[in-house]
Amino acid sequence: METTTNKKQQQETQKPSIYSLELHELREWLAEAGEKTFRAEQIYDWLYKQRVTSFEDMSNLSKDLRRKLEESYSITTLNTLIQQTSSDGTIKFLFELHDGFSIETVLMRHEYGNSICVTTQVGCRIGCTFCASTLGGLKRNLQAGEIVAQVVKVQKALDETDERVSSVVIMGIGEPFDNYDEMLSFLKIINDDKALNIGARHITVSTSGIVPKIYKFADEQMQINFAISLHAPNNEIRSSLMPINRAYKLPDLMEAVKYYIEKTGRRISFEYGLFGGVNDQVEHAEELARLIKGLKCHVNLIPVNYVPERNYVRTPREQIFEFEKTLKNAGVNVTIRREQGHDIDAACGQLRAKERKEETR
């Protein structure tokens, strides 16, 4: 087993991922290397349309340019440790990174297309009490290219059946806004029509509520779908579920949400996990309706996945519908998330926690 020091040394000597470069950055690098900047589009075509894994395969580039690319960058490859396939078509991947750490990526099949849920960090420091992703804490942030590589890897698997990734959700392991700059580069790269060409309105990013970054993200004026992991209608319950609420309390979070909606004109989604006996009573639904009254928003109710390392239990089916009905009667736009991957390690971080215990202690 590699030591942490060895992993750190490997990480330091690893060349930057070329997947981390936005198109304008690649053009700038080419200019500095004495090359024609139009080569950037050719390189992007090889990376994202042809999906090659070696600079040598970029046959319309000079040998000298290929050598320069090889010396400066790596094409990030992810090693598939485990691939679980659900009866509903959901596929969960446990990928190994160059330094031996592991991450999860999930492919979900819908009537409207294939959606992929990506990871932004190895582990997580936010400490939500219901989430397996936070077990063992945060190991490191991912480079933008390591996030992009997840989409490319899954797309290569879909190439075999002439399918494509049609939407992306950033809801895997980690807090996206805790790795803000790399996440933002990732968004711009996959959205680029020269790259993976995934439309902004087919991309969703979710945060647990890092308030300053919500204001910053609003000012980016991107047409990305935005979700808040809310999970509670008041400060007391939210702080017990999500320690981040002690740093950024619910009133401050709601002010940031209002700013986002006013600045972008876009609807926001609230993710609300239902935890048996904790936040799933009718009075909680009524309190939630009052909290978000007047906001351009949608509530996504999530029946909790059981995580062995946590003690939460599932809300009874009838109670879930009663909670939904209470919100609807209060004029709230609400849906119950369709469950996928129920027969595999579906909960975020669960597969990694089970298979990579040395990372999640």
UniProtKB/TrEMBL annotation:
One of its GO terms (biological process) is rRNA base methylation. It catalyses: adenosine(2503) in 23S rRNA + 2 reduced [2Fe-2S]-[ferredoxin] + 2 S-adenosyl-L-methionine = 2-methyladenosine(2503) in 23S rRNA + 5'-deoxyadenosine + L-methionine + 2 oxidized [2Fe-2S]-[ferredoxin] + S-adenosyl-L-homocysteine; adenosine(37) in tRNA + 2 reduced [2Fe-2S]-[ferredoxin] + 2 S-adenosyl-L-methionine = 2-methyladenosine(37) in tRNA + 5'-deoxyadenosine + L-methionine + 2 oxidized [2Fe-2S]-[ferredoxin] + S-adenosyl-L-homocysteine. The active site is at 104 (proton acceptor), 348 (s-methylcysteine intermediate). One of its GO terms (molecular function) is rRNA binding. It is an enzyme of class 2 (transferase). Residues 110-343 form the Radical SAM core domain. [4Fe-4S] cluster binds at residues 124, 128, 131. Binds 1 [4Fe-4S] cluster. The cluster is coordinated with 3 cysteines and an exchangeable S-adenosyl-L-methionine. GO terms for cellular component: cytoplasm. S-adenosyl-L-methionine binds at residues 174-175, 206, 229-231, 305. InterPro entries: Aldolase_TIM, Methyltransferase_A, RlmN_N, RNA_MTrfase_RlmN, rRNA_lsu_MTrfase_RlmN/Cfr, rSAM, rSAM_sf. It holds the Pfam family Radical_SAM. Its main location: cytoplasm. NCBIfam families: rRNA_mod_RlmN. HAMAP family: RNA_methyltr_RlmN. Reaction proceeds by a ping-pong mechanism involving intermediate methylation of a conserved cysteine residue. Belongs to the radical SAM superfamily. RlmN family. Specifically methylates position 2 of adenine 2503 in 23S rRNA and position 2 of adenine 37 in tRNAs. This is Probable dual-specificity RNA methyltransferase RlmN. The lineage of its organism: Bacteria, Bacillati, Bacillota, Bacilli, Bacillales.
